[in-house]
Amino acid sequence: MPKLTIRNVGEFEIPAGKRLVQALVQDAGTDQLHACGGKSRCTTCRVKFIEGEPENITEAEMATLNAREINEPGVRLSCQILCDNDMTIELTSRLEGSGRKDQGSPVADEIEPPPVWTTR
Q: β-pairing, 82-83 with 87-91?
């Protein structure tokens, strides 16, 4: 099982193939935002990779990051990433301090929209 290390939170063993956004909320118990329900529309689920950033990216994630002019190295959308290797991340978009009433809509088990994989 891949190991997920979250700065200032801890280390967690995550089932391979699980969506990162779900691992952050369900397995690690963080208050990671996901306002659009994990559909690559809002960027509230963004995280910053310290180590283990996947080379693959969905076309939907790339389009959303480009549209929002988010081009900082290592910043990715956790809703579009599968846990298939060890990762170290920093949470950058949390419920605490956001002013939102909740973390967001329910997230499906499968990546939405159906992923078309590419590289940056």
A: unpaired
Tokens 């419920």, located at residue: 95
**Model confidence, pTM:** 0.96
Model confidence over 13-28: pLDDT tens digits? 999 999 999 999 999 9
Give per-residue burial for 74-100: e unless 16+ CB within 10 Å, then b.
Answer: ebbbbbbbbbeeebbbebebebeeeee
Q: How far apart are CA 87 and CA 115, in angstroms?
A: 20
Question: Are 102 and 44 within 8 A, CB to CB?
Answer: no
Which CATH code for domain 3-96? 3.10.20.30
List of residues 6+ apart from 26 with CB closer than 8 A: none
Give the DSSP H/E element, type plus range, for residue 22.
helix 20-22
Residue 87 token pair: 């990762």
